[in-house]
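Most newcomers find our protein records easier to grasp once they have seen one. A learned vocabulary of local backbone shapes supplies the integers on the structure line. An example says more than a description, so a record of this kind follows:
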Amino acid sequence: MKTYNVKAGEIERDWWIVDATELTLGRLSSKIAQILRGKHKPTFVPHLDNGDFVIVTNAEKVKVTGNKEEQKTYFSHSGYPGGDRTTSLAHLREKHPERIIENAVKGMLPHNRLGRSQLKKMKVYAGDAHPHEAQQPKPLDIG
């Protein structure tokens, strides 16, 4: 018996689509991160980008529980003294609703060049429309 290791050239990537309407942010994000990393495949190895592509539609309709809509904040810093900024979830939902899911998934992926390449395989759209019909994505059940 020998352990099989998949080579980078042998990786086959599927396309998945998920409708974020009325899905909880954390549960949705953890499932997407799992698909992007490739942990659902039997050929998973932690040092290769083995995951699939994920298309997320209706990002503006994602659900959060409790008082997170007003209390959850996102922090950024410009690099200059006093350059810190905070943004609430409600404000981010108005301006850039796709960034809510992007930030949640980004925090669940490895914080290195591998995680950055895996994050590029996620396409998030605020509404129903997306330009990836030619890839024939399969529906992802988050149930």
